[in-house]
Amino acid sequence: MNFNKVYTIDDLVKLGTVEEIIRELNESMTPYVVAGDVTTYELLLPYVKRAKQTERFVPTEFFVSRKHELIYILTQHGDGKERKQKLGCKDKYFKKENRREASKWYRDIANSLEAQSKTNAPSDDIIKQAFQKLTALRERFSYKFESMKEQEFEDET
Question: Domain segments of the chain: what residues?
């Protein structure tokens, strides 16, 4: 359930029954527990609002853009293996025979980082830091990236 868009009782009703929402909150927010006497949407709404403010709650659709999500993954995510997974970096990209796919993967992320932000534009320093992390990941590949023109010329010969 996505609690991010819940602001009113009507929003809660759209999510499901009181029992379903309580079950989801209790599972998502362990050890946080909704009080046993909560039986109505009116009583439940403050718990949902509190859950949205709690750090441990990891909602879906948290980021305002793909660019913001990528910046977070690259600059704040500590686990390298999980970072690669969240970025869509496959193990096969580390082999030279898959350099075209790896190059496309890199370009897609780089293009997303370069895209103009319409809301809450990140600072240039943060974007630079994200690019440095992305480049560091790319440099771990077992081959040097070639420019796309060099690859196309190579394929034609």
Answer: 9-53, 66-156
